[in-house]
Amino acid sequence: MMPNRRTFVAGLAALASMPGMAQSTPPFPSRVIRIVPFGTAGGPIDTLARVYAEKLQQRWSQPVIIDAKPGASGIIAADYVAKAAPDGHTVMFTLPLSHVNNAILMSKLPYDPVKDFTPLSMLATGGPMLVTRASAPYNNLKEFVEFARKQKVMNYGTWGNGSSAHLFGELLKRQSGANLVHVAYKAEAAAHNDLFGEALDFAWANPSTARAQIQGGRMKVLGIAGTRRVSILPNVPTFAEQGFQGFDVDSWIGVYAPAKLPTSIQDTWVTALREITAMPDVQARLTAYGFEPLGNTPAQFMEVYKADFPRVSELIKAAGVTL
Predict the structure, then answer these.
(1) How far is Cα of residue 280 from the mean position of the Cα atoms in its chain?
(2) For residues 268-281, average pLDDT
(3) Is the link from the previous residue into 258 a cis peptide, with omega within 30 of 0?
(4) pTM score
(5) 102 near 139, Cβ under 8 Å?
(6) Do 222 and 139 meet the contact criterion of CB atoms below 8 Å apart?
(7) What share of the chain is helix, strand, coil (3-state, %, to 5)?
């Protein structure tokens, strides 16, 4: 007698309930973990990723490697992670450029910034600084604008087309009426080399880089974008404090895994990232880079992410940036 459909389905259910037969999430972590940072090796995100890699390796007793994939304003790195296996062994440490700015500026990306990723945690927030050579004949934004208006052209460098630094530079160009020309680099350090070599007139920097160059007598800071001053350079005023509006959009460091990551693995990652971010030595490193430690949940991460879209869109519109 042939079994009917109901008997057959019941039999499958019984088999699935037997030890070793049920579908289960593979153990995590079970091999090398790969962190893909935004930017080049030695950049600020790469450096901070190494701090977390050391803590994760101690926590999970598995090797954690940093695999930088620079270029194309973070698109190469993001696309690599989006196409990785959703097993928790590959994640991305990134800035808004790869997931917010690029999505607004570009009509087509090789990945969907929402559908192709699992958000884990937003580690910290901050903002870039406008910097120039220590010998420049201006010491604040007002003096800089007055000087720039008298020049035929002033070139400035950032770490990528569509980056927050690029948007702020173009917004400053519109507000000042000066002819400020953007030059995109793969890395912040490359732009600074050209700044000191006088191929650029000014550039943008993260606070830790600016502080190191100030201490070396090579650089001075004219202002910081974002909503607040930073503790490592407390005397540097924000753009808003100097009378320039529209620059109060914070940057952030976020961690993403590929889409369809099992909930149990997501929870393991989120717990680890939040607990590591809360460590005093890690908070000190984040603060030293000019970031405000955060370490939020995936839901909180997505709230900030979704709120960023209209704000960044307005900034892009105000700055007149197109790619």
Answers:
(1) 22
(2) 97
(3) no
(4) 0.79
(5) no
(6) yes
(7) 45, 20, 40
